[in-house]
């Protein structure tokens, strides 16, 4: 077999180079581009890219030998937009984010329901005062997206005694869910839910899925999380729902434009928590293992794990 050239395009290039070299993969030459000039100079040699999508996208038209791009992230939206080239295999990172996402969701959820921030303030004031709270047990958790991430969140919800409902394209039964529905059922599910978590991908069907109508269907006490893609939420409609009391609380880790602009009216909203797209990091140790497994599949002509359907967008 002829040698294949891998080009690393990541802020973690040094770690990826060390981890992949340790694997002693056959017929693989490894290059790394730590600057834009290096990337422009080396891109024409690459058969394979291990890359952050935003770093790879402007270089694709010059990657004349490219046959496979392994994204270091789960999100590859920028690479599947109309007009982007599709004559290569695109794979993303899957199966490693579920535990991290579950920690994020339930860390914030417990902080809110147990009023942790208020007790910290009372401690500062040396104030001994109990506040009312409700248990998660018996509450209804609605998770949109029932893949590996959604299933981890669902199982954690079950651990806390929650009733867990799911929404997916297929509506197929999944581990951790009491029942899974297709998207048309969303309008009748939202009024039942105490906690709503979106882990949806970015597609034509999911764009602004959560609009003024949908927020109006939620309980006024509901807590809404978006840890999937920012495009699923109409930010203006969300802000209005929070301001008018139609929605109790929201926790957002993803936004249509990132980083979130300093002048965004979302920042000062008191019943909104904003985090900088860090609910689940792509740790190089985990991503490198996925790349190594996929490289063996690649040279053996087997189907790659995490392959993206360009038409579906995920």
Q: Which series of helices and strands comes N to C?
A: EHEHEHEEHHEHEEHEHEHEEH
Structural class: alpha/beta
Give the fraction of residues assigned to helices: 25-40%
> How would a crystallographer describe the biggest sheet?
7 strands, parallel
Q: How many alpha or pi helices?
A: 10
The whole-number mean of residue pLDDT values reads 96
Instruction: Specify the overall morphology.
Output: elongated
Spatial sequence of strands, sheet with the most strands: 8-7-6-9-10-11-12
Extract low-pLDDT stretches.
none
What is the distance, rounded to the nearest whole angstrom, between the alpha carbons of the first and last residues? 31 Å
Number of strands: 12
Strand portion = 15-25%
Q: If you compute it from the alpha carbons, what radius of gyration comes out, rounded to the nearest whole angstrom?
A: 22 Å
Summarize the structure.
By secondary structure, this protein is α/β, with parallel strands linked by helices. The chain has helices spanning 13-22, 36-42, 53-56, 98-113, 116-124, 148-159, 186-189, 212-217, 235-244, 284-300; strands at 4-9, 28-32, 48-51, 68-71, 89-91, 140-144, 163-168, 179-182, 195-198, 223-226, 249-252, 272-274.
Structural summary, described in words:
The protein is of the alpha/beta class and 314 residues long. It has helices at residues 13-22, 36-42, 53-56, 98-113, 116-124, 148-159, 186-189, 212-217, 235-244, 284-300; strands spanning 4-9, 28-32, 48-51, 68-71, 89-91, 140-144, 163-168, 179-182, 195-198, 223-226, 249-252, 272-274. A seven-stranded parallel β-sheet has the order 8-7-6-9-10-11-12, with helices on one face. It has a five-stranded parallel β-sheet with strand order 2-1-3-4-5, sandwiched between helices. Helix 1 (13-22) crosses helix 10. The longest helix has 17 residues, at 284-300. The two termini are 31 Å apart.
């Amino acid at each position: 077999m002829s040698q294949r050239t891998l080009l690393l395009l990541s802020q973690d290039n040094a770690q990826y180079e060390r981890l992949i070299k340790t694997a002693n993969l056959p017929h693989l030459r490894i290059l790394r581009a730590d600057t834009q000039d290096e990337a422009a100079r080396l891109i024409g040699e690459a058969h394979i890219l291990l890359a952050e999508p935003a770093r790879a996208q402007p270089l694709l038209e010059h990657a004349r030998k490219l046959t496979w791009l392994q994204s270091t992230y789960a999100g590859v939206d920028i690479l599947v937009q109309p007009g982007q080239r599709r004559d290569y295999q695109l794979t993303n990172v899957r199966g490693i984010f579920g535990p991290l996402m579950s920690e994020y969701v339930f860390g914030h959820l417990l902080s809110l329901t147990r009023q942790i921030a208020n007790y910290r303030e009372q401690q500062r004031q040396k104030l001994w005062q109990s506040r009312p709270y409700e248990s998660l047990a018996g509450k209804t958790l609605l998770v949109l997206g029932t893949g590996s991430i959604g299933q981890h969140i669902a199982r954690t919800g079950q651990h806390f005694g929650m009733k867990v409902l799911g929404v997916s394209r297929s509506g197929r039964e999944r581990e951790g869910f009491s029942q899974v529905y297709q998207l048309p059922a969303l309008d009748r599910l939202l009024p039942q839910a105490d906690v709503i978590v979106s882990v949806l991908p970015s597609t034509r069907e999911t764009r602004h899925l959560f609009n003024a109508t949908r927020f109006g269907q939620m309980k006024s006490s509901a807590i809404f999380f978006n840890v999937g893609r920012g495009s699923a939420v109409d930010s203006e409609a969300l802000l209005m729902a929070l301001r008018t009391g139609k929605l109790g609380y929201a926790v957002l880790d993803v936004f249509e434009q990132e980083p979130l602009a300093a002048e965004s009216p979302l920042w000062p909203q008191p019943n909104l928590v904003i985090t900088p797209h860090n609910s689940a990091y792509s740790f190089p140790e985990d991503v490198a293992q996925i790349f190594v497994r996929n490289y063996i599949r690649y040279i053996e002509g087997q189907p790659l794990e995490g392959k993206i359907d360009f038409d579906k967008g995920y």
